[in-house]
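Supplementary Text 2. Reproducibility record for the structural model of the 132-residue chain.

All settings were left at their defaults, and a single model was retained for analysis rather than an ensemble. We include the record here because the model underlies the residue-level annotations in Supplementary Table 4.
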Amino acid sequence: MTPPELLHQAYCEAMGIELPLNSAFARYWHEADKEGLDPDGLKLAIKARIKRNFSMEPRYQIPLSIRKLVGDEERIADVINEAAVIRAEQRKKQYAPAKAEVLRATGRPDEPEQEKTRHIGEIIKLREAANQ
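Retained model, structure tokens:
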């Protein structure tokens, strides 16, 4: 399968629908692929938007049509950014919900201590040093 077909398949799977890939959709997916959107990131963003939509009033819900999702460069960038944020949250260490509840009840922190974050400049310097 080509990348646009893979993105369309990921969209259909995340939405739980069957939708034929027409030329308009293929153009949108082609542009999204060129911008760096991957099928897994697309699924993450769609599922997060669906979850958010369930908790919102209908007039404030986030549209999930293909055109509204990846119809231009800014929207594609938003989806890529959304997927990156979700992935970062998934990497965050967490306690099991029951353990977190017990810790909260006893006045202790309900999240494990996170590693100290590093500035991007520090990482770039490390990479440059490794390449020399």
